[in-house]
């Protein structure tokens, strides 16, 4: 399903390496634009009527709010974390460099063009190519799935094996046939965070329904759909994070698994490289993970966020769950503080100060020739959002009123609480996706 701006030009501008959980909506991390493709203006009034009554208005809210919450959480992960703020700065810095180079003409110095390729690679590595994922629909014949964890290597651009590891979960049925082999990618982390927000918004709405029969029916539908999506082999790239958390910490409630995942994902997105480099896998992991020691050392070397999530789950299992201390969303901050202070000599507050200092540095006013005023306003806002949500944050963000990011509905209806006009939104989308198309074209020129 094309978003309304894509329909204007009759082709997709979707970046394949960015998360897209469903065609019903999308968030473009490159242009920072939210689209709710399956909704129209007529859905808005009923969706904002919170007086649930016998006319079933809650059905409209259940259609609208969870989708908005899912895509808005992507926006917040991009605008309130160290990873996201770095990426926004990198995108607009690269585009400014290209603008300056194009103005200079044939005399342009080319030394900085490697930054264009670095940006392109950063985007491409958010979601691993399909080569690294295997799905066998015919084998999805029994539930719950059995699983094993494994690791491999990523190939370099010249086809040689690299020392950069990739971590997987292998899901198998009762006959030990492979259902799916799924990598721990940054895309998987971002989707787990967004799904947690989506599921919690559904629960809040269902729990607010006044009619007991309607509430019971919606609650049953919610449980059934949550279970079905968790064991859908076509969505497993987006549930692999919650599966690992649930299996490692003996969690049977999907909501709890996603809530814990969301908090841990935020930590991973906010950890400075200087902190990650202090981790020593062989000292933090139990012997059952010894076959991963070397691979995890290279994860730390490359600061691979998807694999870092896997490492932290294994550390929390080794230090706490396996010793009888349950790991849950409600005690995660306490356990992380204990883990960091005992093993690297830093408290969560210490790490928060380091992250804040790095964000302060990134958010220093830019002096770009291209859109410096807009970029500086985004960076200022992002710095404030990090202060508000913190290092680990909560499983669910209050996304209402002025906290709702700009979005476009499937019928071209535009909503903005920031004062942005539709023309400005549209221009940014086409400018930024056009810039990414340049990156793709430029990468094809890098052939020696």
What does this structure look like?
This protein is of the alpha+beta class and 448 residues long. It has one domain (4-137, 166-445). The protein is 54% helix and 9% strand. The protein has 17 helices and eight strands. A four-stranded mixed sheet has the order 1-2-7-8. The protein has a four-stranded antiparallel sheet with strand order 3-6-5-4. A hairpin with a 4-residue loop joins strand 7 and strand 8 (414-415). Helix 4 (82-104) runs antiparallel to helix 16 (372-389) and helix 6 (186-207) crosses helix 9 (254-270). The two termini are 37 Å apart. The model has no long low-confidence stretch (mean pLDDT 92).
Question: What helical percentage do the residues reach?
Answer: 40-55%
Q: Helices and strands, in N-to-C order? A: HEEHHHHEEEEHHHHHHHHHHHEEH
How many helices? The count is: 17
Q: What structural class results from the helix and strand content?
A: alpha+beta
Order of neighbouring strands in the sheet with most strands = 1-2-7-8
What is the β-strand count? 8
Mean pLDDT: 92
Shape: globular
Q: Beta fraction of the residues?
A: 5-15%
Radius of gyration: 22 Å
The domain tally reads 1
| C-alpha termini separation | 37 Å
Largest sheet: 4 strands, mixed
Please mark out the parts with pLDDT under 50 across 5 or more consecutive residues, or reply none: none
């Amino acid at each position: 399903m094309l978003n309304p701006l894509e329909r204007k030009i009759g082709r997709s501008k979707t970046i394949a390496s960015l998360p897209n959980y469903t065609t019903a909506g999308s968030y473009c991390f490159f242009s920072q634009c939210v689209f709710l493709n399956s909704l129209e203006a007529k859905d808005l009034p009923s969706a904002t009527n919170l007086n649930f009554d016998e006319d079933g208005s809650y059905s409209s809210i259940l259609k609208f709010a969870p989708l908005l919450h899912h895509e808005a959480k992507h926006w917040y992960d991009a605008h309130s974390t160290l990873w996201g703020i770095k990426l926004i700065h990198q995108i607009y810095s690269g585009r400014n460099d290209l603008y300056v180079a194009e103005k200079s003409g044939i005399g342009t110095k080319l030394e900085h063009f490697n930054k264009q390729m670095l940006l392109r690679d950063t985007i491409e590595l958010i979601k691993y190519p399909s080569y690294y994922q295997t799905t066998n629909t015919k084998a999805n014949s029994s539930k719950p799935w059995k699983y094993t964890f494994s690791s491999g290597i990523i190939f370099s651009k010249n086809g040689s094996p690299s020392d950069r590891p990739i971590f997987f979960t292998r899901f198998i049925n009762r006959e030990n046939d492979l259902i799916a082999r799924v990598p721990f990618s940054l895309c998987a982390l971002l989707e787990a965070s967004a799904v947690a927000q989506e599921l919690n918004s559904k629960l809040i709405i269902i729990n607010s329904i006044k009619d007991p029969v309607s509430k019971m029916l919606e609650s049953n539908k919610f449980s059934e759909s949550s279970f079905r999506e968790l064991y859908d082999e076509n969505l497993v790239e987006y549930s692999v994070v919650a599966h690992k958390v649930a299996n490692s910490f003996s969690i049977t409630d999907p909501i709890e698994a996603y809530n814990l995942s969301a908090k841990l994902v935020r930590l991973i997105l906010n950890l400075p490289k200087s902190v990650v480099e202090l981790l020593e896998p062989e000292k933090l992991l139990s012997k059952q993970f010894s076959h991963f020691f070397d691979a995890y050392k290279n994860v730390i070397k490359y600061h691979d966020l998807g694999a870092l999530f896997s490492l932290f789950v294994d550390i929390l299992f080794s230090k706490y769950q396996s010793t009888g201390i349950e790991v849950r969303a409600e005690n995660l901050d306490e356990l992380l503080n204990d883990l960091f202070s005992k093993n690297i000599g830093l408290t969560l507050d210490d790490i928060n100060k380091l992250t804040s200092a790095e964000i302060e540095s990134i958010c220093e006013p830019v002096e770009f020739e291209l859109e410096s005023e807009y970029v500086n306003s985004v960076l200022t806002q992002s710095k404030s959002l990090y202060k508000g949500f913190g290092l680990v944050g909560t499983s669910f963000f209050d996304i209402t009123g002025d906290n709702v990011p700009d979005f476009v509905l499937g019928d071209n209806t535009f909503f903005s609480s920031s004062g942005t006009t539709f023309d400005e939104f549209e221009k940014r989308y086409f400018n930024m996706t056009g810039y990414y198309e340049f990156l793709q074209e430029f990468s094809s020129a890098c052939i020696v």
